[in-house]
Amino acid sequence: MKPEASSVDKGPGAGRPRDPRIDAAILRAAAELVVEVGYSNLSLAAVAERAGTTKTALYRRWPSKAELVHEAAFAVPPSAVTAPPGDVAGDLRAMMAGARDSFTNPVVRAALPGLIADMAGNAELTARIMERFAGLFEVMRYWVADSIGRGDARADVDPDRLVELIGGATLLGMMLRPGEDLDGDWVERTADIITHGVMV
Amino acid sequence: MKPEASSVDKGPGAGRPRDPRIDAAILRAAAELVVEVGYSNLSLAAVAERAGTTKTALYRRWPSKAELVHEAAFAVPPSAVTAPPGDVAGDLRAMMAGARDSFTNPVVRAALPGLIADMAGNAELTARIMERFAGLFEVMRYWVADSIGRGDARADVDPDRLVELIGGATLLGMMLRPGEDLDGDWVERTADIITHGVMV
Amino acid sequence: MKPEASSVDKGPGAGRPRDPRIDAAILRAAAELVVEVGYSNLSLAAVAERAGTTKTALYRRWPSKAELVHEAAFAVPPSAVTAPPGDVAGDLRAMMAGARDSFTNPVVRAALPGLIADMAGNAELTARIMERFAGLFEVMRYWVADSIGRGDARADVDPDRLVELIGGATLLGMMLRPGEDLDGDWVERTADIITHGVMV
Amino acid sequence: MKPEASSVDKGPGAGRPRDPRIDAAILRAAAELVVEVGYSNLSLAAVAERAGTTKTALYRRWPSKAELVHEAAFAVPPSAVTAPPGDVAGDLRAMMAGARDSFTNPVVRAALPGLIADMAGNAELTARIMERFAGLFEVMRYWVADSIGRGDARADVDPDRLVELIGGATLLGMMLRPGEDLDGDWVERTADIITHGVMV
DNA sequence: GCATAACCGAGACGGTACGTCCTGTCTTTTA
DNA sequence: TAAAAGACAGGACGTACCGTCTCGGTTATGC
Predict the structure, then answer these.
(1) Residue D199 pairs with which residues in a beta bridge?
(2) Which of A144, C87, D41, D194 is in the most buried spot, having the most CB atoms within 10 Å?
(3) Which residues form the HTH tetR-type domain (chains A, B, C, D) (predicted)?
(4) With an 8 Å Cβ cutoff, are A169 and B165 in contact?
(5) Least CB-CB distance to B116: which of A110, A117, A193?
(6) pTM for the structure as a whole
(7) What is the pLDDT at residue C136?
(8) What does the pLDDT read at residue C11?
């Protein structure tokens, strides 16, 4: 049995079904532990123990620490912008705040640096993790097209670059401030530059 | 003997002096190996072996893998902008290209994700690595103040946010493209947004 | 359901009857595999797979690896001496050759050392395996009594010791020669000593 | 560093020397544990723990459980016959008792079945273990030649078969009696048969 | 000139985590 | 009920790395 990246169904099939409580217990244990000890000090044996199960059950579900932690950290993918009204400055500030909130989540914050390290040189893992954020790019493309259509944004604004700017600044800002969070002022000042960069 | 973060001189002192060729050989070996196998698969024993020396000599010089690789990767700190004339668009494009060039260096690219992981939760290491980039923030502050003074930049542009936007977008852009580099068009499109965000 | 040591019938009973072809397939697979990979490397999952069935069916029939292999190896219990005429030297040589033939069987040879190991500290298993050889002691007692009666054997020959000498020498001789077999000369020379030890 | 079968010296060499107390502690722990839990339940991690060291140190010294236990059990090789006077019956009885004493040693008794299993199919290990008993065959050859020379033994007695008979009967006798020992009567009765088999 | 201090190589040390394997049991669907 | 499939707990395996240490032996300086 090759482990599925996530514990998805694989047809009804025969055999004893996996106990879904074990899935949940492992994810919960991984989330707790990664916050407590950090990604690199996170041992899969410790996760299994806290989840009240064994390494065997864990490896049956996830092929690596990265896949497990990735799923534990991003159980709910970050949403870009929920309310899409026509206010460029407000929307960008909301996106910025959303990115800040996603990355500031304790589990994400503890897991992200390690995940980044494991992703490097593992294109497959990178792709799987990144597809979770694919929606963000899609939403941004619609938003930019809409803003241009309304005459609020310059015609040559590249939406993919915009995602990279917002996400990258948040990522780097978080890394530069171990211990502390990104406050409202930070969001304001960063969104301000981007807003002027987008507006017509 | 506590090892010095880098192999700086510590007075004449007595005793046999360190062989500087070993310093160089270790740094070279570390740079080569981190590119070949990646940060997490980099073993200090392997570095010592390729350098033709031993772990003992290595640990005498650097206290940890992170410190060693950090020094191997950033032997020359990245310069922000060399020619500082009064062209906002040109300057920002040059800074963007400079960041791109720094992060695209094979050794940096191979080492950075792992360094980020080791930095998390190690504020001391973070500080030491970050001080290498302190000059960037300083230069940016001067550049912004100058541009504002010339009436080319808006008065409320925050230079620190600007550094985070440029560096973060470059970092994230690199991470999203394992294998490929950031081309001129990428630099152009990203710098374009920032430029409009800065200009008055 | 406790499994029976061997797959004996347990009355007609209710429910679906066991498929006897599975019994045979498992025993054949166990015999083949123990020769190929040795006792300690023999996994019950592999036996089940080669037999075209599953561990469930296997464990329903035999409670442990030792019981299964024991039955696979000693499907036919070794006979002591088939023709019982009154020739001490000839009979002992025949017994010696019989022991040699039993232990030289490839399956027995591959299985025996592991079985010995599993028997140690498991008196119940030891008893079950040993009762398969109980007939040998019985036959030997008759044979010795008969030989003494005919005046061919000394009166104080202990038949149980005789069995241990013959079996033990064969066992040890086999162990000392991994790869090769015990030839006719070996049988001759060993039987010679015992014969003189028995004869009046 | 390939582990040496036994922790023999390998020249003066460089590097930190092995701590001989660790060798001793491991052997002692292995001897104790094999008696307590049996060979198959003996885990190398448990041996290391009881010895107050780690698996690493253990694997540095012995390549396998068999090699370690073999050395722990046969720290002193069994001597064949110490007093070699010219009494065939007495000498053989002494040899028999010596074999009995060797195999009855608690450590040997606990270790032997498992060792036998591991030896099977590992000719190299078999050879290494057997060479420890090579002296026995040598001594027996001298003893037989001497006895023949004195006219006490028949000329065609094969000394190697004699070793196999004595050792084999003891081995098998021990295996057939889990829990109990081989008593003086057993030695007497078995030696009696062999003595008559040898004497002229 | 010779002691001292720090270097160098080699490699063992305690410790920890890894990912795999196997055993014997249990739980499910299907026959 | 049995059969097939496969998950489950538990635990050993042998390997790899880390960062420290203990050696014997080698340079430099500095008294």
Answers:
(1) D153
(2) D194
(3) 20-80
(4) yes
(5) A117
(6) 0.86
(7) 87
(8) 45
Produce one character per residue of D144-177: b if its CB has 16 or more CB atoms within 10 Å, e if not: beebbeeebbbeebbbbbbbbbbbbbbbbbbbbe
- The pLDDT of residue A186: 97
Contacts of D187 (CB under 8 A, 6+ apart): D93, D96, D97, D100
In this prediction, what percent of chain D has a pLDDT beyond 90?
68
Q: Select the CATH number that applies to the domain covering B88-198 from these four: 1.10.357, 3.30.930, 2.60.40, 3.40.630.
A: 1.10.357
Place of tokens 């001189």: B9
- Spatial CB neighbours of C23, under 8 Å, sequence gap ≥ 6: C7, C61
Instruction: Choose the CATH number for D20-65 among 1.10.10.60, 3.20.20.380, 1.10.10.10, 1.10.150.20.
Output: 1.10.10.60
Judging contacts by C-beta atoms under 8 Å, the chain A residues touching residue B190 are 158, 161, 164-165
For chain A, 200 residues long, the average pLDDT of each consecutive 10-residue run is 44 80 97 95 96 97 94 74 72 94 92 89 82 89 93 94 97 89 96 91
Name the residue ranges covered by the structural domains of chain B: 20-73, 88-198
| Beta carbons within 8 Å of A179's beta carbon, 6+ residues apart | B123
